[in-house]
Every structure is written in structure tokens, then in C-alpha cells.
Design brief:
There is one protein chain. The protein is mainly alpha-helical. The protein folds into 2 domains: 87 residues; 69 residues, Winged helix-like DNA-binding domain superfamily/Winged helix DNA-binding domain (Arc Repressor Mutant, subunit A). Helices cover 71% and strands 9% of the residues. It has a 3-stranded antiparallel beta sheet with strand order 1-3-2. A hairpin with a 2-residue loop joins β2 and β3. The chain is rod-shaped, with a radius of gyration of 29 Å. The protein starts with a helix and ends with a helix.
Length: 164
């Protein structure tokens, strides 16, 4: 799950809105304080509505903190996903052409396919597909599960996460 620019813009919008609400609330408290010119005019006590004044501040600070944490953590997750993708691409480059075709077919099926589907690839026979599947299984690239008279071939979860 890659965090897109749209998600980041939404988070920045929430952060800006929270900051605006915080500034408005703090200015409201200042206007009620003893240093405010309004205090001399109206005679308002600064603690008249303390709970009502402090609640929006807490909410604004919480939203601001949450947006900031999400924004910075999304960068770390995004960098990790980019690293996974590059590692998975390196693995694909180490495969020969036929093995790469098989892995690309698995990627089209979101990480899994029937072995019979691999056999139907161009220039692929039953024997050739069987040998390719065995080699990929020995390398830990795929796992094989029995499904009736055929096998379901699944990509390793790390490779799937990096390429799909």
C-alpha cells in the first residue's frame, strides 16, 4: 500500500485546519485574559469558560499531532515499499527468460496461477514448465499447493508485496 500524494495532501489539509483552529482558539483565550483590552472594557473573567476553551485546543493539538505522525511514518513505509520493489526487481533480473515469463504470469494473477496456465505460455511445454516450477520452488521464489489434478503456484509473499 503506497501512500499517494493525495493522502499526503489530505493529511496536510487536516494539519493546516488544526493549526488554524488552534490559532483562533488561542487568540480567543488571549482576548479573555487579563492582558487583553477586552477585559478592561467587558470585565470578563478569564476562567469563565475554561473547559469550553481548553477542549478545542486539545482536539486541535491531537489532530495536528496525529497528522504529523501519519505524514512522517508514511514516508518510512513508502521508503520500505520502494526498497522491497527494488529487491524484487533484482530477483527478477537473476532469473532466466523462461523463469521470468512464469513469474510475470504469476504477477498477472496477483501472485498465483495454476501450473496448467504456465504450460500454456508461448514456447512452454509441460516438462519445461514443471522444471521451471521446481527450480523456482528450490530457490524459495514460489510455493506449490496441490489443487485437484494440477498445482496452484504462489509467489513468495515478500516478492508479491514488492511487485504487485
Amino acid at each position: 500500500m503506497v501512500f499517494g500524494i493525495r493522502n499526503k495532501n489530505v493529511i496536510l489539509g487536516i494539519a493546516l485546519f488544526s493549526m488554524l483552529a488552534l490559532v483562533i482558539q488561542l487568540s480567543s483565550i488571549y482576548l479573555k485574559s487579563e492582558h487583553s483590552p477586552l477585559r478592561e472594557i467587558c470585565g470578563v473573567c478569564p476562567f469563565d469558560n475554561f473547559v469550553i476553551d481548553i477542549f478545542p485546543i486539545v482536539v486541535s493539538l491531537s489532530a495536528l499531532l496525529g497528522a504529523g505522525v501519519y505524514y512522517f511514518m508514511s514516508r518510512k513505509v513508502e521508503n520500505k515499499e520502494i526498497g522491497l520493489k527494488s529487491n524484487a526487481k533484482v530477483i527478477l533480473n537473476l532469473l532466466n527468460a523462461d523463469e521470468r515469463k512464469a513469474v510475470e504470469k504469476l504477477l498477472e494473477g496477483k501472485g498465483k496461477a495454476l501450473q496448467a496456465e504456465l504450460t500454456r505460455l508461448p514456447e512452454m511445454s509441460k516438462v519445461k514448465s514443471h522444471r521451471i516450477v521446481k527450480r523456482l520452488q528450490e530457490r524459495g521464489v514460489i510455493t506449490i499447493e496441490r489443487f485437484g489434478k494440477t498445482n496452484v503456484i504462489k509467489l513468495n509473499d515478500e516478492i508479491t508485496a514488492g511487485l504487485v
